[in-house]
Amino acid sequence: MKTQIQRLLDEIESEYKYTSRMTGKHTLDPKVKAAISSIPRDKFVPKSHIDSAFHNAPLPIGHGQTISQPYIVAIMTDLLELEADDVVLEIGTGSGYQAAILSQLCRQVYSIEYVPALADMAKARFEKLGYDNIKTKTGNGYDGWPDHAPYDGIIVTAAAKQIPGPLIEQLKPGGRMVIPVGKPYFHQELTLVRKNEDGELDIRDILGVAFVPFQEEQ
User: Fold this and answer.
1) Those residues with Cβ within 8 angstroms of residue 124's Cβ, 6 or more apart along the chain or in another chain
2) Which domains are assigned to the chain?
3) What is the mean pLDDT of residues 11-20?
4) How far apart are the C-alpha atoms of 133 and 1, rounded to whole Å?
5) Cα–Cα distance between 216 and 12 in angstroms, integer?
6) Closest CA to 53 of 61, 68, 41
7) What is the set of active-site residues?
8) Which candidate, 26, 16, 2, places its Cα nearest to that of 71?
9) How confident is the model over 21-31, as pLDDT tens digits?
10) What are phi and psi of 74, to 5 degrees?
11) What integer is the mean pLDDT of 86-110?
12) 18, 73, 103, 192: which has the fewest C-beta neighbours closer than 10 Å?
């Protein structure tokens, strides 16, 4: 009998095949698959939704926010193409699930959450579960976290009307950013930004998505 996580991974792989023409990804990277397998998603959802923790669907986490669909977490993580020594910035900690997966693939994760209550819960969750390479703070993610820049990867888990300039500045040459761009609650595109060694940008729309809005855009 398949476990819940095995069934979830099968569903993610099925979506990879379905969206491969758009994403260019035909199968889940084994490193990302191992990271997803190692993170207990049921520890990152409210008790009221724990029975749905391993469904391939977004779930509410309070304060008008959600934990993303596991397939979306997988493809966004995969698109970053992380190496073990990389340093990553996440905008939108939420419940902490995405940051926990990133923590298995890179050296350090810095994560910013706009909602204080969610930031506090995520920090406590990381400490309880032993994810000691994640550092969090409460704040406006539009300005990034310049103290630790530049970053090998940047991931944004809320839809911005446009790509924030400070995040582009904080992306290391050779680095990648994955961000949903578009109007809140309307059409959005998951966007991959690659900065080459000369600082020039290659920007590509990957997939239509639906995210909560980016807070406090300036």
Assistant:
1) none
2) 4-209 (3.40.50.150)
3) 96
4) 34
5) 32
6) 41
7) 68
8) 16
9) 999 999 999 99
10) -65, -50
11) 98
12) 18
**Which of 191, 199, 141, 140 has the alpha carbon at shortest distance from 169?**
199
pLDDT digits (tens, 9 = 90+) for 103-127: 999 999 999 999 999 999 999 999 9
Query: Is the four-CA dihedral 115, 120, 126, 132 of positive or negative sign?
Result: positive
DSSP string, 138-186: ES-GGG--GGG--EEEEEE-SBBSS--HHHHHHEEEEEEEEEEEE-TTS
Short-list 115, 62, 107, CA closest to 91: 115
Token code pair at residue 36: 């997803």
Is-contact 91 213, C-beta < 8 A? no
DSSP 8-class letter at 58: -
> Phi and psi dihedrals of 45, rounded to 5?
-120, 155
Question: What are φ and ψ of residue 79, in 5° steps?
Answer: -65, -20
End-to-end CA distance of the chain: 51
Residue for token digits 């520890």? 43
Structure tokens of 8? 């979830």
